[in-house]
TrEMBL record:
<dbReference type="InterPro" id="IPR000757">
    <property type="entry name" value="Beta-glucanase-like"/>
</dbReference>
<keyword id="KW-0052">Apoplast</keyword>
<dbReference type="GO" id="GO:0004553">
    <property type="term" value="F:hydrolase activity, hydrolyzing O-glycosyl compounds"/>
</dbReference>
<keyword id="KW-0964">Secreted</keyword>
<keyword id="KW-0326">Glycosidase</keyword>
<dbReference type="Pfam" id="PF06955">
    <property type="entry name" value="XET_C"/>
</dbReference>
<dbReference type="InterPro" id="IPR044791">
    <property type="entry name" value="Beta-glucanase/XTH"/>
</dbReference>
<keyword id="KW-0808">Transferase</keyword>
<dbReference type="GO" id="GO:0048046">
    <property type="term" value="C:apoplast"/>
</dbReference>
<dbReference type="GO" id="GO:0071555">
    <property type="term" value="P:cell wall organization"/>
</dbReference>
<dbReference type="GO" id="GO:0044042">
    <property type="term" value="P:glucan metabolic process"/>
</dbReference>
<keyword id="KW-0961">Cell wall biogenesis/degradation</keyword>
<feature type="domain" description="GH16">
    <location>
        <begin position="1"/>
        <end position="124"/>
    </location>
</feature>
<dbReference type="InterPro" id="IPR010713">
    <property type="entry name" value="XET_C"/>
</dbReference>
<dbReference type="InterPro" id="IPR013320">
    <property type="entry name" value="ConA-like_dom_sf"/>
</dbReference>
<dbReference type="Pfam" id="PF00722">
    <property type="entry name" value="Glyco_hydro_16"/>
</dbReference>
<dbReference type="GO" id="GO:0016762">
    <property type="term" value="F:xyloglucan:xyloglucosyl transferase activity"/>
</dbReference>
Amino acid sequence: LKNEGSTWDEIDFEFLGNLTGDPYTVHTNVITGGKGDREQQFHLWFDPTVDFHTYSILWNPHVIVFYVDGTPIREFKNLDSTKVPFPKSSAMRIHSSIWNADDWATRGGLVKTDWTKAPFTASYKNFSTQACIWPSGVGTYPCNSYPWLAKELDAASLERLLWVQKHYMVYNYCIDRERFPQGLPPECAATT
């Protein structure tokens, strides 16, 4: 999900390249006001090329949750009251693309794209969105009936999220003190 402009907001759900036989890595990021650096990465517990899977994002005024087949893998809470930016003031668009990021995305740039395997394709089915669209000048009134507007992780979902993070998370910016020697970003104190 992304909006336009020099200080854009973006919610990334990306697949990183790999060597044959290596686990597939999902890369997530939350960009607010044009600033990202909020990456978390996960090895998938299955081969996503064998069959279709469901990748979902819940984005409401309280939280952003990334899901794989209904299992939450990442939660980014709205901590705006503590001056942590949260994408909530601009509409977003959905983008899908295949792009070459082998300078960083494949084991830190060690694995290069094998262009002899082109063309590269991605397939989608059963795509759906639920969104709140309201006319300009009107507050959130038309959106109040959407149940997802107030949804947050319940205890069972939070337990599944923590299990996935313990077993499949391979990178978390919130523990990367080498990258942030002056101190971890403020949301890391409250991030699951």
